Amino acid sequence: MSGKERLNIFELIKKVVFTDFVKGLSITLGYNVRGSMTLKYPDQEKWIPYKRFRGLHTLNRDENGRELCVACELCSKACPTQCITVIPMEDDTGRGISDRVAKVWKVDLVRCLFCGYCEDACPTRAVRLGRDYELACSDSSCNLKQREELLVPQSVPESFEGGVVAASTFEASPAGLRVKADLTKTKKRPW
Amino acid sequence: MSTVKINGKEVTVKDGTLILDAARDAGFEIPTFCYQADLMGVGSCRMCLVEIEGQKKLQPSCITPVLHGMSIHTETPTVMSARASMLEFLLANHALDCPVCDKGGECELQDMVYKYGPHKGRHAEPKFKFQEKDYVLSPVIIKNSNRCVQCMKCVRVCGEVVGANVLGALGRGDHQEETSFLRSFLDCDQDGNCIEVCPVGCFMRLPYRYKTRPWDLKGKDTVCPYCATGCRMVIEERDGIVIRAKAQLGVGLNSETLCARGRFGFDFINSPERLTKPLVKRFGTLEPASWEEALGVIKDNFIAAGKNIGGIASARLTDEELYLFQKLFRSMLGSPNIDSSARWAPEAVEGFIKATGMDEGGASAFDCMESDTVLITGTHLSDENPVTDYIVRRISAGRAMNLVIASPRAMKLDSSASQIVRHNAAAEGHLLDAVTLSVYGGNVDKLRDVPGINRIKDARQDDLAGKAGCSADDIKAIARKLTGEGSVGLFAGTEFLRYPGSIPGLALLKNALKALGKKVTIIPVLDRANQRGAWEMGVHPGFGPGYSPVKERGMGCADMLEAASSGELQALYVVQSDIVAMHPDENFVRGALSGLKFLVVQDCFMSETARLANVVLPASSFAEKDGILTNQEGRAQIIRKLLPPPVKAKRDIDIIRAVGETFDRSFGPKNPVLVLDEIRKEVGMYGEVSLAFNNKRNVDNKLDLKEALVKPAGLAEGLNASGLETKLEPKTDEHPFLLATGNHLFHSGRLSRKSPTLIGLLKNAIVEISAEDASALGLMNGDKVRIKGRYYEAYATLHTRSGSKGGVAFIAENYDDVPVNRFFRRGEGVPRVSITKA
Ligand code: SF4
Ligand code: SF4
Ligand code: SF4
Ligand code: SF4
Ligand code: SF4
Ligand code: FES
């Protein structure tokens, strides 16, 4: 009996001094004084994902610059959406690690679901899903990525740990929009 | 019969059945590498080990026959672990570079390891390597011995089936390498059968190298478009380009084998030279036109020509197309002038049909090989019909029989023969007459009434033997074999059509043997995929579909050309036949064709004939149509469409129908299926032919399915086989060699000359004479020589063959650089030539 009464008194005091109100307000006020969580993307900051991220495909080379892809077509076979096309050819000039190289290696990003089966299937670790994720464009021309383009190293090297926010600059030119991240200037993410 | 228990299941099989076959029949699977039904067992791979109760060691089931009462186990833990161990050993030195291996995806080793194998090996030492890089063995074969499983199938197929014997095993044990002598470049038949039987990526196709994975290929069952053996194969394309033709184990009469033409000659399909749109001649040049325009021009000119019109269709078209073609002429244009060959005279064809009994329905080559004595005559079988040669070699090696080969030129198959007879060129008839006379000598009573016997019965044996150019002993030996115990089989080839004077000799011998009560099976050996079909569809001036009599006899090719020169024939419709290149006497053909008012040529390529045409219609290759082809044995086999015809080209059946429809909208039937229905109704021979077995893997490698053989027509009485004679230019000192022609091993007609791969096998023309003749002339193999006839001379590389009869020079009809028909002159018989060093 008496306990119940005490409770009621507590409630009463809470109501009188606006405890809940102050509590809520303090969170709001707290955000006011804490730094911003919004990334100033694209012109100042850019999120660099973790290594496990699965973005745009990249085709790797070995330390001597030879293409790792041997055009075995296993990636295209493993792909659940059949969006990779590989056509092999013979070339023993040292372009690749074997005399079998890709004449065509292309991926149709519209159909890709970034599942990463292709990289799992690859016997030479030639294809990896990299950390480029700015894939939007105003027409469908950029959806088909060809070998030549994928062989150009991506902006985030595989060795880079990731999971950080990097300083970035935004460049708009007739050639297109580009967000350039500076991997030497990174900070932890603010959340 | 033996009764054995396999995994507890009791089965009764014939004595001597292999455990492997018995188990497979009983429904148990046993993996194998080195076993192949039609090759000699070697038991080398040990994948097929089974456990037999009472025997301590496991036994290879592929070479162990069953014994009555055996109890066999195929799936015990011991067996399973033995399989896994065998695979582990195979992988110890195996390259395992599947990602770059062209076999990946259809590799028997991959499948086997996946199913039975240890998924981890324990061999840590470095792998032994035969070589670092794949090496090229021939223009069509590339090899990587590091992937070899030492099953010896390549060596066995090359020796036992192909008869080339160019492969062998170098080294021993795990260092044993199956390859050519000293891994040198192969001078072989280039048929790629070693590639097809190889279970791994050791022997590989060079033209297919690094082009695709098997799962990217779309394939269709078809039949080789070259010779009339009728080999079944699958052609496969990627992105519209045909990149492989392969034969399948147990499918078709050829099983896994093909010859170079079939396996590598498909690349004419995607040739950039293919005709893609109709052309109409305007002011002397052929210019692109629409189909409507082209058909309009054809209609106007055909109407103007009235009945003075003729048609020549290639013997590579399908039965449906050929049937519609003759229907177009006979019932729509009202002209009896049709032919399917630019080379043979119609009477010779009729005589040959009668002599070989083609109207009596199909006869299987396997049945023929079951005969006790087989005589091969009038064909250079090893080059003309290579896979028929394989069948003969394989079967004759496996049973006790007489195989007699009579031919002026030596051939690969000679090594399988029990008697070889070298006779003069064009003297098949004299040889057979001499044989018949010898048979007659011993059986005068029985043979007195054989039709035609009067022609020879008073001849002198020595005269005939002398004309044939062989000894009386040879003749007697053949006669003795033919009249000995048992049945007789004959393979009779195209020389009979080339030298029609020989046909009565063939007919007479057949009749005489039949009169002696013998079972005689004759296989006509033909060199165009659907030559027999063309005749059976009635594309011949003397008979209609199913050899039925015709109301009015028409003109054959030669007569049509004659009539064209005299202006009597006004229009000619030629479908995929290059008469300028094929008809003896090219100049005459050119003259005749220019005498025409109107020439339509329907072809895949701008052939020599097409260049002279007023209208050229773009046609289809075998890969672009559905239909049936009838092989030399009379087996009707389906081909299926893999690709659409290029650009504006059309299927031949649609073009022929469209031409008919310009006269009558109802001309038809409208598609190949309906045409086949009509053929089945109208042509008794085809009424009950089963096409159902096609493309299925036959159980226990039984290749000879007789349901597909056409039925007897029995209409040969109406055929006109009169006036058969062989005309030869008289022999002179100036021109000592008789000019023989036919197909080269790598080629068939001119079609194969559009295949870059086949051209790569042999670029320029060769002329072949016997080694003895060559040394008498002081010439050597490989010399450049001048071949001079009365009307033409040409240069070619000399090829000598030891063991050939002298006095014959062979030039294949395939080469465009030495068009052999230019040596011929109309009406002057088979030419003679001289050969001198160039
Ligand atoms: S990520 Fe998945 S869907 Fe995309 S290409 Fe690779 S396998 Fe195909
Ligand atoms: S990327 Fe890898 S899996 Fe794909 S074809 Fe190249 S090597 Fe093969
Ligand atoms: S032969 Fe078979 S197992 Fe060997 S590398 Fe080729 S695909 Fe792989
Ligand atoms: S291509 Fe034919 S002849 Fe040549 S090695 Fe192979 S099997 Fe023998
Ligand atoms: S050319 Fe004749 S033997 Fe050769 S694959 Fe074709 S059908 Fe068979
Ligand atoms: S299949 Fe029996 S030992 Fe090779």
3D architecture notes:
- The complex is a heterodimer of chains A (191) and B (838).
- With 191 residues, chain A is an alpha+beta fold.
- Chain A has three domains: 3-33; 36-50 and 161-191, no CATH class; 56-153, Alpha-Beta Plaits (2-Layer Sandwich), CATH 3.30.70.
- Helices cover 24% and strands 27% of the residues of chain A.
- Chain A has helices spanning 2-17, 19-33, 74-78, 117-121, 147-150; strands spanning 45-48, 57-59, 84-90, 100-108, 127-129, 144-146, 164-173, 176-187.
- In chain A, the strands form three sheets. In chain A, strands 1-7-8 form a three-stranded antiparallel sheet, with no helix packed on it.
- In chain A, a hairpin with a 2-residue loop joins strand 7 (164-173) and strand 8.
- The longest helix of chain A has 16 residues, at 2-17.
- The model of chain A has no long low-confidence stretch (mean pLDDT 90).
- Chain B is of the alpha/beta class.
- Chain B is 29% helix and 18% strand.
- Chain B is built from 29 helices and 33 strands.
- In chain B, the strands form eight sheets. In chain B, strands 15-14-25-24-23-16-17 form a seven-stranded mixed sheet, with helices on both faces.
- The relative contact order of chain B is 0.11.
- The model of chain B has no long low-confidence stretch (mean pLDDT 93).
- Classes of the chains: A alpha+beta (191), B alpha/beta (838).
- One iron/sulfur cluster binds next to helix 4 and helix 5 of chain B.
